[in-house]
Every structure is written in structure tokens, then in C-alpha cells.
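To close the chapter, one final illustration. This time we ask the reader to focus less on the individual chains and more on the assembly as a whole: which components sit near each other, and how the overall shape emerges from the parts.
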Amino acid sequence: MEKNAISMRGKHVLGLEYFSPEEIQLVLSTAKEMKTIIHRDIKKVPTLRGKSIVTVFYEPSTRTRTSFETAGKYLGADVVNITAGTSSIVKGESLRDTLLTVEAMGFDAIVMRHKQEGAAEYATKVVNHPVIINAGDGAHAHPSQGLLNLFTLLEHKGHLEGLKVAVLGDILHSRVARSDIWGMRKMGIELHFAGPKTLLPRFLSEEPGIVIHDRIEDAIKDADAIEVLRIQLERQKAGLFPSNREYARIFGINNERLALAKDDVLILHPGPMNKGLEISPYVAYGNHSAIQEQVQNGVAVRMALLTLVLTGGKQA
Amino acid sequence: MEKNAISMRGKHVLGLEYFSPEEIQLVLSTAKEMKTIIHRDIKKVPTLRGKSIVTVFYEPSTRTRTSFETAGKYLGADVVNITAGTSSIVKGESLRDTLLTVEAMGFDAIVMRHKQEGAAEYATKVVNHPVIINAGDGAHAHPSQGLLNLFTLLEHKGHLEGLKVAVLGDILHSRVARSDIWGMRKMGIELHFAGPKTLLPRFLSEEPGIVIHDRIEDAIKDADAIEVLRIQLERQKAGLFPSNREYARIFGINNERLALAKDDVLILHPGPMNKGLEISPYVAYGNHSAIQEQVQNGVAVRMALLTLVLTGGKQA
Amino acid sequence: MEKNAISMRGKHVLGLEYFSPEEIQLVLSTAKEMKTIIHRDIKKVPTLRGKSIVTVFYEPSTRTRTSFETAGKYLGADVVNITAGTSSIVKGESLRDTLLTVEAMGFDAIVMRHKQEGAAEYATKVVNHPVIINAGDGAHAHPSQGLLNLFTLLEHKGHLEGLKVAVLGDILHSRVARSDIWGMRKMGIELHFAGPKTLLPRFLSEEPGIVIHDRIEDAIKDADAIEVLRIQLERQKAGLFPSNREYARIFGINNERLALAKDDVLILHPGPMNKGLEISPYVAYGNHSAIQEQVQNGVAVRMALLTLVLTGGKQA
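The assembled structure is written out below.
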């Protein structure tokens, strides 16, 4: 089959910079099939039966972790969760030793989140057998989030090439924004960034297809989609952010600002939302919002990733 | 089939006030079949294979959570646990958004506990697909506990109509007592309450079949069963409770007081017990105690509930 | 079949003092078969399908808990985890009541860790149906760790009888050392202990096959294997341990000291390691180290134990 000419079997999922457009395309088309499973009465396929997946999270996250766990279970895999907070395996133990330990237990895939940029790539140098799936490494990457954004756009717009997407907020520290840059640019999407001046990566403005705006209104103008990033409240304490009220007024997405975008503009948010801050409740639950869909697409994309890297093919 | 004339498929389990006597009867008869599974050598049926259940607990509880998890697994369902304490999905995220998130992931049932009365009912207004099962909402209701109490009584007494049950302790704040009021009254059981005066809902004394007693001895007299509620130690701090020693002396159930009830009186307790306070060890582990059985019946009742609301029928 | 003449069905796993050499042999030979499952593409056998296992950990441990959970899942069992830290089932509830509660839920095996010596044995007096597996009770025993040490030695050396093993560190408080004493002595292994003087159980020096050394070099001399125990940093605070730097200098295992042992000496460590303290990184990751293997063997040994006590036989 043409489509399966590319195999991703054994490929580590570190960041979309290491994905070819063809590989991204394969994930998206596989995810489309996977999404139908989530809607079935019997949400269980034997694709990954006998495969074992461990999630190792050094940073708290239930959304992403639950999403991977659910994806694995729908596919028939065994999933074991290790949380750094409650775990002696990771308390005072080096990352290397923890990785060697879970490898020794026989896991086929390690889904990991770590505060340190590059932690997932480091993991690939430590282990031999398991596939590493980066579920967030500091401000570096969150590839499955980038892929679910692409999947959501594709489902709604029918194509990716030539779309204009505005990404708003703390771009500098966002692994979601960084994953968008790699993923969306590869698929021919034009990116428009806006946010607090101190949190904009100005150096990006030299890149083709990326525009940094001073005013949020200019970024939104004629956008096919707007991704609203979550305010990281801890950055506010560091004095890099204006107050909540100011933020909502200057950068918050509300119906008024939405009107500047295309009529069929799509609203994305990685969640969890600070409603009334970066996004108004009207927009969050309005007609343009694809935020709940993103969560479901996240499960579908993770089912696709797990299937492709663990089996190479699709057997839905 | 006569018995399956009623279908509970898709019914939210919010409180026993929303259950007809026929529905309660259906749960109890289904639970009886389910209990046989727990005693099998192979405790696994495919009834809920391909169904996915999430537990979302905003208040700590392992007894109830583990019981639902175990019930789901015996029935072949996938179960994912989300605890508010360790979870970013619920930290700072609105209940609405958390519910929409887990709905999007494809779960068929959401088993939830929340400190706010009415939280489970609110959940039914937020989500479309999943069935909501209330595992405790503040002082309002804990329907599966009410049902396991009924199941335990029925198993021992052979009938429910006309039984006399004494419920002792902090009635005012107890969701267990409230679930008894709805459940037991519907099945024709007479309720006798006693406890610290400040914690008795006097207004209930107007209800038919409910008697509020000043002295614990009067409530116990000739009782078929005594349900001893757990002391909530945090209420003690609020000055609503006497000291531990006083409580044990005035309200604690011991062998002496037991003698006032019927010869075959059954002792119930929702657990975990404060032995030496509301209940003496002799009573807790004595011949009359059904406390350990209640736990097992809790698994059976939850298996019945999950089966009935997710499939409508019984396929053990 | 000769080998299955011994049945361990229903046997509680409390400590290796209660295992006959034949039983230890049966576990080791079963574990050998189990280890092949971990290397299969489809790591899933139906041996324990329909069996349910609960882990109840009063002390934090992810390594051991995850290992048992993974072992159970590879064998097709259902596994439910209860952690004391986050659990109301165990908070303020007596151990007896918690055990009765999980028994009532229908679990076939309770894997438990508790700070109190004898807790697992106590559990066998409380419950009727479930098998108790001790995953560590204070300083008393950690039998599955003792067994995985034996398995690792047997795999590398081809036999156990007559081996010389050095065990280094805080012998007095170590349940691992204690499990070695029972397990290794039964299999004819000679034990040589060394460590801080305040932490050596001098009374053991009267036992046949056990030698207590003043100098670590004497213990290591001609050893077939060296087990390096983990420093318990909390003991250091109690003034029983020298400083980190001193400890590394006097008791740490490095390449220089390794040279005193046999050429094919095997390095064991129960993990997690304090590298640079009790063990140098060169030794930990060097040619002689079997530390990562021990983790895998731990899964195999636990698969064997679960299979033998729950079914009596081997059906890989």
C-alpha cells in the first residue's frame, strides 16, 4: 500500500522538527481512523494487545497522561502510571536510572514529561528497546499537542496548506507554540504571533511564514484559526506579565476581537483554560470553539502515534 | 422478560429520590447475580468489554473508588482514575471544563465525588454522552451506599417492607443517612434516628415512617438493624460534638445497647470505623456485624449499577 | 510431573525463612520460563485471567509496586493500587479493617508493604481467602527481592551452592540483607558482611556460613558477587553513619575494590542507587553490574510467585 510505504515503527516521538511532512500526514490519516473507534459502542481493538506502556511524569498533568492512558487502553495495551510526586522510583534517583529501570521491566513505550528541555532526547540515548514519546520537555516540545492541533485544523478546514493561524500569549516559554512552529510550518501554515512584548521570541520574525505582531488585533486579522495559550501564572509573579485584569483587556480573546478574524475562524486552546483571562467564556463555549474536540482528537492522535511507533501499521 | 421491562440504560445515578421502587428492586436483583461473580474462581465477565469508566474524585476516598474500579474491571471495562489531589486536570480548572474534557475522551460513565451538594446533578447538564454516577456530593447523597445497605438488609432478612432500622450519629450532615431516607422509605422500612441533639434534622419528624429520638436506647429498641454512622472528627472541632469519651459513653454502640434491639439485629457501618468511639470492637467484629459484607455487597451493587446504566440488561 | 509435585497454591509469601529449598527452586525455575514472556513481542498470557490483585503500600515504593503491577498485567490479572499517602481507606483506619475491606472486595492476592515488622504475618491472621505477599515489612523481610537476587546469581553462575557473596552497608536495618540471609543460606551460599560498625549485626557471626568482617576489603576478597545496599539517608541523621564523603571512601564500591573480588564478580544493588556514595558510577554501569537485570528478574520472579500461589502451577 502506498500509504504504508513509510514506516514509523520504532521511531521516537521527540519533537515535530524530526517529522517529515509525510510522517505527519501518516499520523493524521491514521488518527482519522482511530477517531472512529472512540465513537464505537465497543471501544476496544486488539492492535496493541500484549504491548506495555508506562507513563513517567515528572511534572503534574492529568489531561495529557489520561489521554495517553485512555489511548493505550482503547488499543488493548497495558498501561502503568508512574508519577514523580508520589514515587520513590524517581525521588532522588537519576533520570538515567529510572529509565533503565522501566526499560528492564519490559515496557515497549515510555511516555514521559520532564521539566528539562531535551530530557526525552536524552532518554533515547539511555534506553535500547522502548520507544520514547515526549509528552512535554520544559519549553522545548509537546509533539502530540502539535499534532492534535493539525488534526483539528484539517478536520475543519479540509486542508492545511495556506491557512493562517494566530497564536497568542506567552510564546517564548510555550512548548505548544514551539511544536506549532515545527508542525504547522512543515504543513504550509502561516503563523502570526502576538502577546506581551517580554514574552515574544523576536528572533523568529526572520523565519519565512512567521510574523510577530505588536498588536493582537493585527495577528488575528483574517485568521483561519486562533490558538489561545494558557497563562502560566508563575510567570506573572516573575513580573513578566501584566495583571490579570490588564491581560484580559489587552490580550484576552473575546467576541469583539473574534470579529476581526475570518467568519469561520476556529478557536483552539491547549487547556486547562483560565476563563476570563486569556479567553472569555463566550468564546470558550461559543460556535467557533474547537476546544473540547481538541481533547478527543488528542486521544485519536495518541492512538495513532502509539500504533505507528509500536507496530508500524494500522490495524483498526 | 418481565424483569427487564424496566430499562435503566442511560439513567444517571444521582440519588435514590430519583429511583422508583421497581428500579431499586431491579438493582438489588441484578446485584444478587453479580455477587456470584465475585465468588467465582475466574472473576471476569465480558459484560462491559469496550466500555470505559473514569473516576473523578474531588474528595479523598479509596473505599468507594476502589469498589467502583474493581466492579468495572470484573465486568471487563477499562477504568481510569483521576484524583483531584494529584491532578492538574482539576486543579484550578472549573468542574464544567473537567467534565467536558473527560467526556471528550470518550468515557461512557463518570463516577464522581465532590464536596458540593448538587455537583453530580450539575454534571448531567454539562455532558451529553456519559452517564453520571454520584459517588457522594457533599451532604446530599451517596446512592450506591444506600443501595448496598438495602441489599445487605434484604440478604439477611429476606424482605425489606416493615423492617425497623435505627440510624445513629450525625444525621444532619450525613449523605449516607440521606440516601437511607430516600431508599429505605421507598422500600417500606421504618427509620429511627438518634444522635447529638445539634446534629438531628428535627424537621424530618413530620415525615411518615421517620421517628427522631432523644435517647439512643429508644431508637435501638426492637430494631432489625442498626446503622452506626462514622464520626466526622472535623465537626467535633466546630464544637458540635461532645468529646470522644463522652460520645462513646452517650452514643457509642456496645454489647449492652445491642441487647435492646431484636435478637437477630444486624449492625451496619459505612466505614471506615472509629472503633472505641461510635462502635465498640466487640460489636464491630461480633456476630451481628455485617460491616465486611457491606463492602462486598458494595462491589456487587456497583457492578449492577454499571451494567444497568451502560447496557440496560444483565449478562452475567 | 516431578517438578510440580510441590504445590505453593495458597501459600503466603512472608519471608524466605518459610520457604523450603525445593520451593525456592520451584520459584526460580518458574521465573526462568516467565522471563521469556517479558521478551516476547506479545507480553500477555492468560495464566491469571480473572484473578484480581491489590497492592496496598503504606510506605512509598514505585519500583516494587510497579514490578508487581506489571507482573500481574503480563499474566492477565486485574491489578488495583492503593497508596496509603493518598488513600482514605488506610488513613486513620486500622490495618485490620483495611485488610478486611480489600478481602471483602474479592481480591485473590494482597501485595503489601508496611513499616512495621510482622505486618504481613499479621495480615494472614486477619484474612481468609486472599494470599498475602510481603513486599517489605520494616526491617524484617522483602522475600521477592531475596528471590530475584538468587535468580540473578543462578543465571550468571549456573549454580548457587558454594558461592561466596559479600553484602555491604547497613546490614542491621536492611530487610534485603535479612532476606538474603534466609534465602542464600538455604541454597548453600556463603555470606560475608561488612559495613559501619554500628550497623553490623554481630550476633550473626555465630551462624554457620555467615562471616562478619571489620574491613570491607576482607568481605569482598574472592567474592563471586557483591551486593551493595542502599544508604538510608535518614539513618545518617541519627548519627549512625559517617558523612557521605567518608562513607564513599571507607565503604563505597569502586573499581579498585572490585579488583579484590573474583574476575567474574557480579555487582548487585536493590536500587535506587546513590551513585558516588555506596557505589561509583563506573561500577554501577560497568561490565560486572547486573543491576538493570535484577529489575527484569524482579518482574519474572514476581510473575512466578503470583502464578504459583494463585494457581499452583505454571501455564506460560
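Strands of chain A lie at 52-57, 78-83, 109-114, 131-137, 164-168, 190-194, 210-212, 225-228, 266-268. The mean pLDDT of chain A is 92. With these observations in hand, you are ready for the problems at the end of the chapter.
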